[in-house]
Amino acid sequence: MDEEDRYTRITLRIPKELHTSLSEAAEKTSKSLNAEIIGRLSDSFSFKHEADESAAERVEAIGRRVERSAKEAHLAVLIMGLQSQLRDCEHRRTRQLEIVKAISDAVMKAEEDDPVKCRALESELSAEGKWLSEINMEYARLVAELSNLQQTWSELVGVGAH
């Protein structure tokens, strides 16, 4: 390919102040005015491409931060809900322990005085004991679930910090 075929000749009209600035810049870098103009034009296209990539990267990074924040918020709501359920379960558990203790004390008293009442109380104690076992299983499930969510939270926040 002939050197002349690589270039297109154009006539360009530009403001005198711009011409002066370009000429001075060309002189400082020991370039021709033509080389200075071509270099600046080429750089402007390169810069635009880099700016487009940079903007796309920023948008992608913002998207990742928004997604992580949404996950954090969702986990925080789940954790607060489980903490509330756990407090309720603790209250039910405490109340049920009081009931079982009161019935147990009544059984001990009734053993000597009233065997029929004692058997009825033992039956009631058995039913309340089963209910207490169910509450304890629910409590253990909530504690495990809360622990898992808190671990997920730590991993998510730990990833976000890096």
UniProtKB/TrEMBL annotation:
InterPro entries: Arc_rbn_hlx_hlx (IPR013321), Ribbon_hlx_hlx (IPR010985), Uncharacterised_HicB (IPR008651). It comes from the Bacteria. Pfam families: HicB. This is Arc-like DNA binding domain-containing protein.
